[in-house]
Specification:
Shape: globular
Distance between the termini: 100 Å
Strand content: 15-25%
Largest sheet: 10 strands, mixed
Number of helices: 19
Number of strands: 29
Structural class: alpha+beta
Helix content: 25-40%
Radius of gyration: 26 Å
Oligomer: single chain
Length: 616
């Protein structure tokens, strides 16, 4: 018996050591990449958006299929709040109330969808003080802030059972297996795959979802947590946002600060009545707030990945920085974990831009916050807060800015990506011009613009002599536009600025790049080859920064033997001429990738130069 007991003890000890080593090994796993930066435009099948589903009947009636609005007398009274509208917008307030009361009389307490509410509002005509007003005209005159306020006050909870009076609400669900766009599925699956590398083989990876940048930080919680659960992770909401961070800083002097979250959400997010629409999530936010910073940091420590959903960069900054601009305890913990390879950092669209900051090669890296390419080239970049959407309508734009002026924060954002300026929806929104102008005006060297349905994978490495090396790889449907501002030649200023020999690259699927000591090297995927056509067409674009005209023009230059392509960006007789051209250092590669039985053609280029000069 003693021999048997000794034998069993030895076996158990060996198993314990093996298990301990496995856990230790899992904790020290180095992921293939540390960051997944997404350019927006992912197309996932969900119960609210079935456009990207294989069929219309993927979800049952138990899933939330739409938001609902109720034009009750109490809700309309809330819309009429004078403190919100102010004296300058009293006429718009009266017109909105008259239109809503007119619609309410037709509905007879029936709940309607957002699409129906828009149709009723825009299609309504009503008499106010002897004057007929058009709902379409009134709606067009409202700012984004006013529209959001009206809709928030009218939105109601969508119950699981309309026959019971309770706070159980329907939730939005996602289904990756029934999603038609496999590029989008691939990107989300990559996040889970990398998180699994951090977690190790003994458990599911834990992913935290942050919705701090959204105007309504509750709206997408169900979608993202369900999506990552579908992809094989244990997903939970990490309810950090500007309201939470402000409440934490007030708790030293006001013990009831976490009870003021609805008011703080209205002030800092422009989000109203969320406790009525999402009672459970509001309760979860309050519990998170009451638990405090230490509990939030501990939750981060247990995570394998964190996903920051699309939203305003300024709100994401307010969620993770204190009011004096210093890093919160949560941001400090996240920074340490990312650098150590203990957590995967994923961010979508404008949330990616919020990661910029700190400095690289002795130059401060700014955060891009607003603007279009035409305004950027015509007026330059302003180190000022971004104007609010629709501010041109009510003359509320501040600091002499217009709604589409290019703005940036010279102090940067979260400082988790110091190697250059980040931008999203680059090609689809024609944002090449604003990227180039911001790099010039801020004296930054590198810019990374990520297209829709595309991700930039980032790996942090250190060489034997402890030099930092950053490796990049492109994943997804489209590409990443890179700008190197080091050799740019400039003359003039403001709208008369001339830029010459701006170095640009466009990397597509499986292409890679490496950044070391301020030098960026690119490499094409080995399945791509030099274009073999002999065509040399004349390449011209009349409105180069509209939609994806720039990308289309550049792709023609990439695929042919043409050496130059010319475009213009002109409004009311003013604007700029843009020339893309190849020199002896330029290289292009094309290839075909097969996805879901379809062929996707790519063309990548290196060292295509750009000249931009005013049209006189």
């Amino acid at each position: 018996m003693k021999l048997l007991s000794l034998y069993l003890s030895t076996i158990l000890m060996a198993c314990s050591v093996t298990a301990a080593n496995s856990v230790s090994s899992a904790a020290n796993n180095t992921p293939d990449y540390n960051m997944v930066l997404i350019g927006d435009g992912l197309k996932i099948c969900s119960s609210i958006d079935i456009r990207f589903c294989t069929s219309k009947d993927v979800f049952t009636d138990a899933a939330k299929g739409t938001t609902k609005f109720g034009l009750t007398s109490d809700n309309i009274k809330n819309v009429a709040l004078a403190d919100f509208w102010g004296e300058q917008r009293i006429i718009e307030q009266q017109q909105v109330i008259a239109l809503l009361q007119h619609i309410a009389n037709r509905l007879n307490n029936e709940l309607i969808t957002e699409r129906e509410l828009l149709r009723y509002f825009r299609g309504a005509d009503v008499e106010v003080d002897g004057v007929w007003i058009s709902g379409r005209v009134v709606y067009a005159a409202l700012t984004d802030r006013e529209i959001n306020f009206v809709f928030d006050q009218l939105q109601v909870l969508v119950p699981t059972d309309t026959n019971k009076r309770n706070n159980d609400r329907k939730k939005e669900y996602a289904d990756l297996s029934q999603t038609t766009d496999r590029f989008s599925v691939e990107i989300y699956s990559k996040i889970v795959e990398l998180a699994r590398q951090v977690a190790g083989p003994l458990r599911k990876p834990r992913i935290l979802v942050v919705t701090a940048g959204a105007r309504d930080p509750f709206a997408d919680v169900d979608f993202y947590t369900n999506l990552f659960t579908e992809a094989g992770a244990t997903a939970s909401w990490f309810p950090i946002n500007a309201a939470y961070q402000i409440a934490q800083q007030q708790r030293d002097t006001d013990k009831t600060a976490c009870k003021q979250l609805p008011q703080l959400l209205a002030e800092y997010h422009g989000s109203y009545q969320r406790q009525r629409v999402y009672p459970q999530l509001m309760a979860e936010l309050e519990t998170f707030c009451q638990a405090g910073t230490e509990a939030a940091v501990n939750q981060l420590k247990r995570a394998d990945a964190i996903f920051i959903a699309d939203g305003k960069p300024s709100q994401i900054i307010q969620a993770l920085r204190l009011q004096d601009g210093s890093a919160s305890a949560e941001l400090q913990q996240l920074d340490r974990m990312v650098k150590a390879g203990h957590i995967i950092l994923a961010a979508n669209s404008r949330a990616s831009a919020a990661l910029s900051g700190r400095s690289y090669q002795g130059i401060r890296t700014p955060m891009l916050t607003n603007g279009d390419s035409y305004s950027a080239m015509q007026f330059g970049a302003f180190d000022l807060p971004a104007p609010e959407g629709g501010c041109d309508k009510d003359q509320s734009c501040i600091n002499g800015l217009a709604e589409h002026h290019l703005t940036f924060n010279s102090q940067g954002g979260l400082g988790l990506f110091p190697w250059g300026v980040l931008d999203s929806q680059l090609s689809e929104q024609g944002r090449q011009g604003r990227m180039i102008r911001l790099l010039h005006d801020s004296q930054s060297q590198f810019g990374f613009g990520i297209d829709e349905n595309t991700a930039l994978l980032v790996k942090l490495q250190a060489t034997a002599d402890n030099e930092q090396v950053i490796q990049f790889k492109v994943l997804g449907e489209n590409g990443v536009f890179l700008v190197d501002n080091q050799s740019t030649e400039t003359t003039g200023e403001g709208g008369n600025l001339t830029l010459k020999q701006v170095t640009t690259h466009y990397l597509t699927r499986d292409d890679t790049a490496e950044l070391k000591q301020g030098l960026l090297r690119t490499q094409f995927a080995d399945w791509k080859f030099a274009p073999n056509t002999m065509q040399m067409p004349m390449l011209v674009s009349g409105d180069i920064f509209e939609r994806d005209n720039y990308r289309q023009l550049a792709q023609l230059l990439c695929l042919t033997q043409s050496r130059q392509a010319d475009g213009k960006a002109v409004r009311v007789g003013q604007g700029h001429a843009i020339t893309l051209y190849k020199d002896h250092s330029s290289h292009t590669r094309q290839g075909v990738y097969r996805q879901q039985g379809a062929e996707v053609q790519y063309c990548s280029y290196r060292n295509v130069l750009v000249d931009i000069q005013p049209i006189i």
